[in-house]
UniProtKB/TrEMBL annotation:
Location in or out of the cell: Nucleus
Taxonomic classification: Eukaryota, Fungi, Dikarya, Ascomycota, Pezizomycotina
Residue span(s) of domain Histone deacetylase: 130-374
Gene3D superfamilies to which the protein is assigned, alphabetical: Histone deacetylase domain (3.40.800.20)
GO cellular component: histone deacetylase complex
EC number in record: 3.5.1.98
Domain Arb2-like: 382-617
Gene Ontology molecular-function annotations: histone deacetylase activity, hydrolytic mechanism
Gene symbol of the encoding locus: HDA1
Keywords, comma-separated and alphabetical: Chromatin regulator, Hydrolase, Nucleus, Repressor, Transcription, Transcription regulation
InterPro entries: Arb2-like_domain, HDACs, His_deacetylse_dom, His_deacetylse_dom_sf, Ureohydrolase_dom_sf
Enzyme class: hydrolase
Residue numbers spanned by region Disordered: 620-641
Identification of the protein by name: histone deacetylase
Acidic residues bias (residue ranges): 620-631
Length: 686
């Protein structure tokens, strides 16, 4: 029986592979250019002789435009030939009827055949590999496989597959789908590539902007566009919760009438148009978020006057002097006609933007616009809005005091006759404000973090119990403190110029700081700026520092770098106990008071003297050191953080173990220093 396409229906996903079967993982590495140097592919491993290439690989001179019959491309299934009919897979249903979307699987599109779009053999050397390397999608897939999210060759046949992504079958995009975005002339040019000689392919690439062609470019580009279509369809149909499409050639630089910038067909706009046509009721409005170092000029131009497509792009702009070197990427280009306001550019002034910059852009620009766009795909975000306040000089070369505390308490004077409490007789007792005022007067920078006792969510149940809402428990709030402290440390504190860092944890926030030290090795390294942790503990438990990699010195370091004030009646000072307080608990000091406010007032002078003592010690040491020592400390990493988004332990584990089966891959990122910078680099402010 001849292979044929299976139409997509509401409950069925057509596939070229058996889900979680032996072909779910990528075959062993194949050098794509070997295909062109040896057309019969006899030297390649059996599982690498992929059935994509229907066009003969031997170059022959023909017209640059293909016969119309080439529009229909048969794609043989990657399953064994003993199957006499296409394999149809039904995706797993949601595991909870109460959460029909949230409990669906994540879909994944990947096909190693897309790696056959590669540079011609005579145009590449081992020292000069094109940045759009076929191995990129393989490395991405391997990362996901290494994480245990898709089946790999080492997977057991009997192991539980519940954590696996659902493999969505890929197909080639049809001509009529591609023409929803591209002109007929553009399509006919790309479809003619398999019939050109190697010299003609090389010449056509040189005529265009940052692109190469080979005999497989047309087929791979159709697979990439078709993969994007099937990923989007699976989500719109409700077959999967969300989907990832690992596809190439990329698309966002491709214009409607020409390939450009590594891109052949513009995959995302094609998928958007197909879904809008196929599902007009459920997919009428579309939001496209383009997260790339380059501006997606092709996507912007495809929808510039479309009121139903909201396009948001975050990219390096440099005043139009960064690829694609067009003024269109500036924030003043907002759409035209019916699409005015539907094109949003966030142009970065320079390279090196990290988590801090992107989170700022998302919170201040992307999310508000996306929420107001009323796209059929709704986004939801929960943040710490207005709970972090900093002095303007917190990145400068001076000591930095970071205070993480519970919300201020309040006091009141009830009516002496009726006992009623009135608002005008109630006030907040924010004792931490006196610490902040003192720190600023003594030339400290300050970051003030309020860790709420309850994070508001939209729910019918909240407040239904007689108006009472229970606060989050200690563990939740400690985790929340650790997350935000780690974020501040990684993005704002360690990469910048503070000479010393002092953490102060008040109440449950103290537990989060201990957890931060336990999990983040950079906080306690020899070159760390962290000088002292001050804690105020009343109702919270006293936590010991624990290092996952069993650092034997962490307890001693913690005891030498802490001052923990504990309320007088705390059980840690139980007189009947014969246990000695361990150093891993820190330098504990029993207070004469029992409430946080009283402790903060009573120990204020002691804390201030301690901070000034540490500051003066640093000044004396600096005056006695030579500039060369400071410079060497900076070169050794004393004033810089590792690349953002990477956990220190994960980095060490990866260097130790490597990625199994991953072929040599070029460097795709550079560990540049990060610092918080506004995305409002050019044009008028939002």
């Amino acid at each position: 029986m001849n292979d044929e396409d299976v139409p997509m229906e509401d409950e069925i996903i057509a596939s070229t592979e058996i889900n979680n079967g032996p072909t779910d993982y990528a075959p062993e590495f194949v050098i794509p250019t070997d295909v062109f140097a040896n057309p019969n592919m006899a030297h390649l491993p059996k599982n690498a002789r992929l059935p994509l290439l229907e066009s003969p690989l031997i170059a022959r001179p023909t017209s640059h435009y293909a016969d119309s019959r080439s529009d229909m491309m048969d794609i043989t299934r990657a399953t064994p030939h003993r199957h006499s009919s296409p394999h149809v897979r039904i995706p797993p249903k949601a595991t909870s009827q109460a959460l029909p979307i949230a409990t669906l699987k994540t879909g994944l599109v990947y096909d190693p055949r897309m790696r056959f779009h590669a540079e011609l053999p005579n145009e590449t050397t081992i020292d000069d590999i094109h940045p759009e390397d076929p191995r990129r999608i393989h490395s991405i897939f391997e990362e996901i496989r290494e994480a245990g999210l898709v089946r790999g060759p080492e997977s057991s046949e009997t192991e539980d597959h519940n954590d696996y992504c659902w493999r969505i079958g890929i197909r080639a995009a049809e001509k009529h789908e591609i023409l929803l975005v591209h002109t007929l002339e553009h399509y006919e040019f790309v479809s003619s590539l398999p019939h050109m000689t190697l010299e003609e392919l090389s010449h056509q690439g040189q005529l265009r902007d940052s692109i190469y062609f080979n005999h497989s470019t047309y087929d791979c580009a159709r697979l990439a566009a078709g993969g994007a279509i099937e990923a989007c369809k699976a989500v719109v149909q409700g077959s999967v919760r969300n989907a990832i499409a690992i596809i190439r050639p990329p698309g966002h630089h491709a214009e409607s009438d020409s390939p450009s910038g590594f891109c052949i067909f513009n995959n995302v706009p094609i998928a958007a148009r197909v879904c809008q046509d196929a599902y007009p009721q459920t997919c009428r409005k579309v939001l496209i978020l383009d997260w790339d170092v380059h501006h997606g000029n092709g996507i912007q131009h495809a929808f510039y006057d479309d009121p139903n497509v909201l396009y948001i792009s975050l990219h390096v702009f440099r005043g139009g002097n960064f690829y694609p070197n067009l003024p269109d990427g500036d924030l003043t280009y907002c759409g035209e006609g019916a699409g005015i306001g539907k094109n949003v550019n966030i142009p970065w002034e320079e390279h090196g933007m990290g988590d801090a910059e992107y989170l700022y852009a998302f919170q201040e620009v992307v999310m508000p616009i996306a929420n107001n766009g009323r796209a059929n795909a709704l986004l939801w975000n929960m943040t710490f809005e207005h709970n972090v306040i900093a002095t303007p000089d917190f990145m400068e070369r001076k000591p930095l005091l970071v205070i993480l505390h519970d919300p201020p308490s309040f006091q009141d004077h009830p009516d002496p006759v009726t006992g009623r409490r009135e608002l005008h007789n109630t006030w907040l007792t924010d004792v931490t404000k006196s610490y902040i005022d003192w720190a600023i007067e003594n030339d400290f920078s300050v970051i003030d973090v309020n860790v709420p006792k309850f994070v508001a969510v939209e729910s019918e149940e909240v407040g239904s119990n007689l108006g009472f809402t229970k606060a989050d428990d200690q563990k939740v709030r400690a985790d929340r403190t650790r997350e935000i402290a780690n974020y501040l440390w990684t993005n704002y504190i360690e990469p910048n110029n503070a000479t010393q860092v002092f953490f102060m944890g008040i109440g449950d926030a103290y537990l989060g700081l201990v957890d931060l030290l336990s999990r983040n090795e950079t906080t306690t390294e020899e070159t760390s700026k962290l000088e002292l942790i001050i804690g105020f503990v009343a109702e919270s438990a006293i936590s010991s520092v624990k290092r996952i990699n069993t650092d034997d010195d962490i307890g001693l370091w913690y005891h030498q770098h802490t001052k923990i004030f504990v309320k007088q009646s705390h059980y840690a000072f139980n007189r009947n106990s014969t246990k000695k307080l361990r150093k891993k608990l820190g330098d504990l000091q029993q207070s004469n008071w029992d409430t946080l406010d009283d402790m903060l007032v009573g120990h204020r002078l002691e804390v201030q003297d301690l901070l000034l003592e540490k500051k003066n010690e640093y000044i004396e040491d600096t005056e006695n050191s030579t500039p060369d020592e400071d410079q060497q400390a900076a070169l050794n990493g004393g004033f810089r953080s590792p690349p953002l988004g990477l956990d220190t332990q994960a980095i060490k584990a990866r260097h130790a173990n490597g990625l199994r089966g991953l072929p040599p891959v070029g460097v795709f990122s550079s560990p540049v220093p990060r610092s918080p910078r506004s995305p409002m680099g050019f044009g008028k402010p939002f």
